[in-house]
C-alpha cells in the first residue's frame, strides 16, 4: 500500500505523478474538508503537490488554519499504521502524543519563520506501533499566499544515519489492502448517497443507518451542539430504545467534556469498567443500554458544533480503523448538512430576488438574443394587457406596433453589440388592437465568462404623457387658428369664441388666463378643480390669485414668482411642484403664452398645465435601475484588472525567486550563474515594461514630451518593425514628404507602434502585408461616443491583412488584460498602453475592422507649430557608463533599502555619496555646508516635502547645484511634464544612473531631461 502505483489517476493533472498517494488524493472526499475540490485549490498549493510527488525523499504539506496533512509515498512509510487515515487530517492530531513536541515548531513556522532541525530531535516511532524509534532532521518552510500571509507549510523529513524507518519494509497484507479499499468504497458511496439530499434530518438518518449496519452497532446518532445542550433529531437504533431529544452536556462529566473540546476521539470499550465515569453517569448510560461507544467531535474553526456517536449494547474493543471511519463519516455528514442548509438559503435568496422583480413599479422583462420573453413582471403584464403565460409564448416583435418594429429591432441589435443601455420610445400593440406608448431601455446581461446571457428591458408607461402631449398640441393648434381669425365678422368671432370656450372648458388640460395684476380673466373646470385640490380654495373669473392665497404666504410667493415671468412677457415651459404638502403637491409642466389686446399691447398671459408627476416618477425609477447595472459592471472591471496584475506579477516573481535560490548555492558553475543572472535581469525588464504599460493605460505615466517629425520617426522605426514582424510579412511605408510635427513622448510613441505591429503580425499569423501610413492635418473623428475636433491631427495608421476582429470584441480590445491569445502568448496590455498613451498625449486611437479582410488602427496625435528644434535620434547607451571622480552627491531617499543600495552604487561608480532620509534632513545638510555637494539625487515620492518641492527649494537656495530626480511613479509628474528637472525612471541600472549623473554634472541643470531605463 505504501509503494508507488502505476494505476492511472482519474483526477487533476497535477496528481498524475503521485504514485499510490496520487490515487488516494484523487479518490479522497475533499468536499467535506475546508480545502474543497482539488481543481479549486490555490495555484501555489497545486504546484507544491506536484513538486512533492516528484521528490525522492519523504515530503509533506501542512495547509490552512486546520493544518490539513498531504504527503507523498515515502512519507507514508514513516506514518506506518497512521496511513492512510492521516490524509487530510490535522497534522498535530495525526502524531498524537508526538504532536505535543511538534506543536512549537509548527506554530513558529506558521508565524513566518522557517524551522530546520538537524540534530535528530524529531523522534518518530516507526509505524506508530512502538516497534522502534527513528530520528529525523525536520524542515518546515512557510508558504505565503498572494496577500503575503502564511497559507501553509512545506515540510521535508530526512532519516539520520543508521535510522532508516522500519516501515520501509513491506507490511501490508492482502487483507489490509482489501479492508482499505472497502473502506474507501464505502465512504465514496456514502458521499454519493448524501449529495442529492436536501433535508438535514434525512442526511442524518441515512448516514446513521449506513454506518450502524457496517459496524454492527446498537445505536448511531448525529447530535448538534447548541450552547449547553446536545440535540438529537434522528438516530439508528437496533434492539435498543430511542434517545431522540435534548440532553445536557454536563451529564458527560468534566473529563469527557475536556476531551471533547480538545477535539479528541473518545473510545470506551467497557462503560462498567471505565473509571472516568461517575456512578450516576454509568447508571445513566446503562439505562440507555450503552456498554461501549465511540464519540467523534466535529468543529467549525474553533467552535464545537456536532458529535457523531456509535454505541454498542455489549462491551466491545474498537479498532483504530473503526475510529478513523467514524471520524470520516462525521466530517461527511457535517459537510452535507452545511451544504444542504446553504442551498436552502440560496433558494430563499433567489425567491426574494424574484419577488423584487415581480413587484417592481416599472415593467421588467428578460429576453433572449432572438427577442423571446424569458421572464416578465406584473407591471409589464399590465402595460401590455396580457397575462404572463401568454407573453412567455411570444417575442418582443409580436407585441410591438408594426410601425415601430424596424426601430425596435435596430435598438435590440445595438444592445447586443455594446455594454451600454439603448433607449427608445415605441408603441406596443395590445390584444384589443390599441397601441400604448412606452419608454424602453435595453441592456445586455453577460455571464461570468463574458458570454451573452440575455437582455434586460426596462419599460415605463408613457401613455398619459403622450395623450397629454397630443391634447396640448391639438389645443394649441386650435388656439392658433382662433387667434388668426379674430378679425373676421362679429358673428364669426362670437361663434369661434363660443367654440373656444367649449373646448377650453371640456379639455383635461388645465387652462387659465390672467391680467397684469394677477386677476383671473378665464379659467376652465380642470384648472379650477386642481387649484381647489392643492390649495383648498376654489377660484373663479374675477378673483385675484394673490388674494386667494393671502393666508398661505409661502404658496402665494411661489405663484407670484412663476406667473410674474409669464406676465413679464416670457414665453416659457417649465416643470415645478405646486400645492400644500398637507393636501397634494404634484409636479406640473406649465407653458406660458403672452395675451395681447386688440392693439397688440401686452395685456396679460395664459397658461396650459399638465400633471407630469407619474412621468417623472417613472423616469427616476428607470435611471435608478440603469445606475445599478453600471455599478455592477464597474465592480466586474475592477476584479478583472486586479486578477490580471496578480497573475502576471506572480509569474515574474516565480522566475526571480527561483533564480535567486540557485544563485545562493556556493557550488553553482559560472555558466549557470550567468544564466540565472541574465534571467533575473530580463525578468526585471519585463516587470518594468508591465508597470509602464499599466501606468500608460491609467494615464499616470510620467511622460517626457518632445517635438519631433512623426514621418521621420515612422521611417526610422519601419526597419525594426520589418524585422519584428518576420520575413513573410511585407511592411509598406506611406509617409508624406512634408514635415509633420507632434509633441509626445518618443519612447511611448515607438512602444505604441510596436504594440500595434505585434498585434497585426499575430492577426496575420506571420504572413501578409502591413501598411504604415502617416496623414497630416487630419480632423479627429468622433470615437466611442466622444466628440471629434476640427483641429489638425497627425494620423498614424497601421493596416493589416489579417483575420479581423469580431464585432462583439471591438468594444473590449483596449481593456487591460483582455486578450484572445492563448496563455503565454500575450499579457493583454499592449493595446491598453496604446489607448493610455493616446489619451494622455491629447489624442485618441480608432479601430476599423472587417472579418476576413483585416484591421486598421489609427493613432491621432495633435500637430504642433513650434520653433523648437525637433528631436533627433535617441542616444544609444554606451557599452560601459563613465565613472565618477570623487564628486560629492547628496542622496535623498526615504526607503532604507533603496537609499543604502543607491549609496553603494554611487561609491562603486567613483562618487562620494551622503544619504539623507527625507527632504527636511537634506535641507539641514545643505544649510550646514551647501557648497560642499556637486549634485543632488532625490526620490520624488516621500513623506512630508516631496522631491519636486525639494528641487524647487534647492534651485532657490543653490541654483548652481544640479538636481536629478528619480521615481517609478508620481501623480505630480504624471499630471504635468513641466517640472523642468532631470528625471531618471525606476527601475534603473548602475550604467543608467552613472550616465545621467555624468550628463548633469557636465551640463549643469538640464531642463526637461529624462532617462528611461526601458
From TrEMBL:
The keyword Kinase applies. Gene3D superfamilies: 1.10.287.130, 3.30.450.40, 3.40.50.2300, Histidine kinase-like ATPase, C-terminal domain, PAS domain. It catalyses: ATP + protein L-histidine = ADP + protein N-phospho-L-histidine. PROSITE patterns: HIS_KIN, PAC, PAS, RESPONSE_REGULATORY. One of its GO terms (molecular function) is phosphorelay sensor kinase activity. Residues 349-419 form the PAS domain. It is an enzyme of class 2 (transferase). Keywords: Coiled coil, Kinase, Phosphoprotein, Transferase. The modification 4-aspartylphosphate is found at residue 939. This is histidine kinase. It comes from Methylobacterium radiotolerans (strain ATCC 27329 / DSM 1819 / JCM 2831 / NBRC 15690 / NCIMB 10815 / 0-1).
Amino acid at each position: 500500500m505504501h509503494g508507488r502505483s502505476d494505476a492511472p489517476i482519474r483526477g487533476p493533472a497535477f496528481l498524475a505523478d503521485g504514485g499510490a498517494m496520487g490515487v488516494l488524493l484523487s479518490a479522497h472526499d475533499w468536499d467535506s474538508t475546508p480545502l474543497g475540490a482539488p481543481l479549486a485549490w490555490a495555484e501555489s498549493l497545486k504546484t507544491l503537490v506536484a513538486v512533492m510527488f516528484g521528490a525522492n525523499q519523504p515530503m509533506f504539506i501542512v495547509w490552512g488554519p486546520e493544518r490539513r496533512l498531504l504527503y507523498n509515498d515515502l512519507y507514508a512509510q514513516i506514518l506506518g499504521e497512521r496511513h492512510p487515515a492521516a490524509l487530510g487530517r490535522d497534522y498535530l492530531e495525526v502524531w498524537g502524543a508526538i504532536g505535543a513536541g511538534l506543536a512549537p515548531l509548527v506554530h513558529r513556522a506558521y508565524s513566518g519563520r522557517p524551522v530546520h532541525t538537524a540534530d535528530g530531535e524529531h523522534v518518530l516511532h516507526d509505524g506508530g506501533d512502538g516497534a522502534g524509534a527513528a530520528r529525523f532532521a525536520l524542515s518546515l518552510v512557510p508558504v505565503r499566499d498572494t496577500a503575503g500571509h502564511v497559507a501553509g507549510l512545506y515540510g521535508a523529513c530526512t532519516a539520520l544515519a543508521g535510522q532508516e524507518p522500519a516501515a520501509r519494509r513491506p507490511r501490508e497484507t492482502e487483507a489490509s489492502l482489501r479492508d482499505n479499499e472497502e473502506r474507501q468504497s464505502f465512504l465514496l458511496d456514502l458521499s454519493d448517497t448524501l449529495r442529492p439530499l436536501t433535508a438535514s434530518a434525512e442526511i442524518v438518518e441515512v448516514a446513521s443507518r449506513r454506518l450502524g449496519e457496517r459496524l454492527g452497532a446498537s445505536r448511531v446518532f448525529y447530535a448538534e451542539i447548541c450552547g449547553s445542550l446536545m440535540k438529537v433529531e434522528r438516530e439508528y437504533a437496533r434492539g435498543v430504545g430511542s434517545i431522540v431529544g435534548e440532553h445536557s452536556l454536563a451529564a458527560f462529566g468534566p473529563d469527557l467534556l475536556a476531551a471533547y473540546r480538545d477535539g479528541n476521539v473518545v473510545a470506551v470499550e467497557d462503560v462498567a469498567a471505565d473509571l472516568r465515569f461517575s456512578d450516576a453517569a454509568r447508571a445513566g448510560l446503562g439505562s440507555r443500554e450503552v456498554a461501549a461507544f465511540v464519540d467523534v467531535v466535529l468543529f467549525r474553526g474553533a467552535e464545537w458544533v456536532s458529535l457523531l456517536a456509535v454505541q454498542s449494547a455489549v462491551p466491545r474493543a474498537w479498532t483504530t480503523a473503526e475510529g478513523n471511519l467514524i471520524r470520516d463519516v462525521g466530517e461527511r455528514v457535517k459537510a452535507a448538512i452545511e451544504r444542504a442548509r446553504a442551498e436552502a438559503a440560496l433558494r430563499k435568496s433567489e425567491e426574494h430576488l424574484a419577488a423584487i422583480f415581480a413587484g417592481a413599479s416599472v415593467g421588467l422583462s428578460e429576453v433572449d438574443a432572438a427577442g423571446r420573453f424569458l421572464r416578465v413582471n406584473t407591471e409589464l403584464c399590465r402595460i401590455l394587457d396580457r397575462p404572463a403565460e401568454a407573453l412567455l409564448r411570444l417575442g418582443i416583435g409580436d407585441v410591438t406596433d408594426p410601425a415601430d418594429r424596424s426601430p425596435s429591432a435596430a435598438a435590440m441589435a445595438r444592445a447586443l453589440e455594446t455594454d451600454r443601455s439603448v433607449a427608445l420610445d415605441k408603441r406596443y400593440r395590445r390584444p384589443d388592437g390599441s397601441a400604448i406608448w412606452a419608454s424602453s431601455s435595453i441592456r445586455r446581461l453577460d455571464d461570468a465568462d463574458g458570454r451573452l446571457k440575455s437582455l434586460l428591458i426596462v419599460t415605463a408607461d408613457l401613455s398619459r404623457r403622450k395623450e397629454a402631449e397630443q391634447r396640448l398640441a391639438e389645443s394649441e393648434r386650435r388656439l392658433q387658428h382662433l387667434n388668426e381669425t379674430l378679425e373676421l365678422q362679429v358673428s364669426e368671432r362670437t361663434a369661434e369664441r363660443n367654440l373656444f370656450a367649449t373646448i377650453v372648458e371640456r379639455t383635461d388640460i388645465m387652462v387659465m388666463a390672467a391680467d397684469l395684476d394677477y386677476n383671473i380673466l378665464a379659467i376652465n373646470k380642470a384648472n379650477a378643480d386642481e387649484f381647489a385640490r392643492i390649495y383648498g380654495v376654489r377660484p373663479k373669473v374675477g378673483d385675484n390669485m394673490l388674494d386667494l392665497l393671502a393666508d398661505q404666504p409661502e404658496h402665494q410667493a411661489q405663484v407670484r414668482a412663476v406667473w410674474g415671468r409669464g406676465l413679464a412677457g416670457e414665453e416659457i415651459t417649465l416643470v415645478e411642484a405646486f400645492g400644500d404638502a398637507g393636501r397634494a403637491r404634484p409636479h406640473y409642466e406649465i407653458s406660458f403664452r403672452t395675451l395681447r389686446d386688440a392693439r397688440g399691447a401686452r395685456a396679460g398671459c395664459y397658461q396650459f398645465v399638465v400633471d407630469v408627476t407619474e412621468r417623472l416618477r417613472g423616469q427616476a425609477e428607470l435611471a435608478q435601475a440603469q445606475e445599478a447595472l453600471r455599478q455592477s459592471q464597474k465592480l466586474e472591471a475592477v476584479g478583472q484588472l486586479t486578477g490580471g496584475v496578480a497573475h502576471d506579477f506572480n509569474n515574474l516573481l516565480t522566475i526571480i525567486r527561483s533564480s535567486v535560490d540557485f544563485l545562493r548555492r556556493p557550488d553553482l558553475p559560472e555558466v549557470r550563474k550567468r544564466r540565472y543572472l541574465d534571467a533575473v535581469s530580463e525578468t526585471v525588464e519585463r516587470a518594468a515594461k508591465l508597470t509602464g504599460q499599466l501606468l500608460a493605460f491609467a494615464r499616470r505615466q510620467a511622460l517626457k514630451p518632445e517635438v519631433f517629425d512623426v514621418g521621420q520617426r515612422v521611417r526610422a522605426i519601419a526597419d525594426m518593425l520589418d524585422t519584428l514582424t518576420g520575413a513573410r510579412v511585407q511592411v509598406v511605408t506611406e509617409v508624406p514628404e512634408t514635415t509633420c510635427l507632434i509633441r509626445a513622448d518618443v519612447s511611448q510613441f515607438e512602444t505604441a507602434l510596436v504594440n500595434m505591429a505585434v498585434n497585426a503580425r499575430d492577426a496575420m499569423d506571420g504572413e501578409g502585408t502591413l501598411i504604415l501610413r502617416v496623414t497630416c492635418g487630419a480632423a479627429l473623428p468622433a470615437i466611442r461616443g466622444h466628440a471629434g475636433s476640427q483641429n489638425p491631427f497627425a494620423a498614424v495608421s497601421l493596416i493589416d491583412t489579417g483575420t479581423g476582429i469580431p464585432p462583439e470584441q471591438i468594444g473590449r480590445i483596449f481593456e487591460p488584460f483582455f486578450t484572445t491569445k492563448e496563455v503565454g502568448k500575450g499579457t493583454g496590455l499592449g493595446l491598453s498602453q496604446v489607448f493610455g498613451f493616446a489619451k494622455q498625449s491629447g489624442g485618441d486611437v480608432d479601430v476599423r475592422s472587417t472579418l476576413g479582410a483585416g484591421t486598421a488602427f489609427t493613432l491621432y496625435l495633435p500637430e504642433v507649430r513650434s520653433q523648437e528644434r525637433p528631436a533627433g535620434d535617441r542616444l544609444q547607451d554606451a557599452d560601459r557608463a563613465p565613472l565618477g571622480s570623487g564628486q560629492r552627491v547628496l542622496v535623498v531617499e526615504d526607503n532604507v533599502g533603496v537609499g543604502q543600495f543607491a549609496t553603494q552604487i554611487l561609491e562603486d561608480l567613483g562618487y562620494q555619496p551622503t544619504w539623507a532620509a527625507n527632504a527636511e534632513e537634506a535641507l539641514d545638510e545643505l544649510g550646514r555646508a551647501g557648497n560642499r555637494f556637486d549634485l543632488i539625487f532625490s526620490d520624488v515620492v516621500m513623506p512630508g516635502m516631496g522631491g519636486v518641492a525639494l528641487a524647487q527649494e534647492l534651485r532657490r537656495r543653490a541654483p548652481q547645484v544640479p538636481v536629478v530626480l528619480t521615481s517609478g511613479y508620481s501623480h505630480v509628474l504624471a499630471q504635468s511634464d513641466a517640472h523642468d528637472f532631470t528625471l531618471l525612471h525606476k527601475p534603473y541600472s548602475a550604467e543608467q544612473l552613472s550616465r545621467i549623473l555624468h550628463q548633469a554634472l557636465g551640463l549643469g541643470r538640464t531642463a526637461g531631461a529624462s532617462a528611461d531605463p526601458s
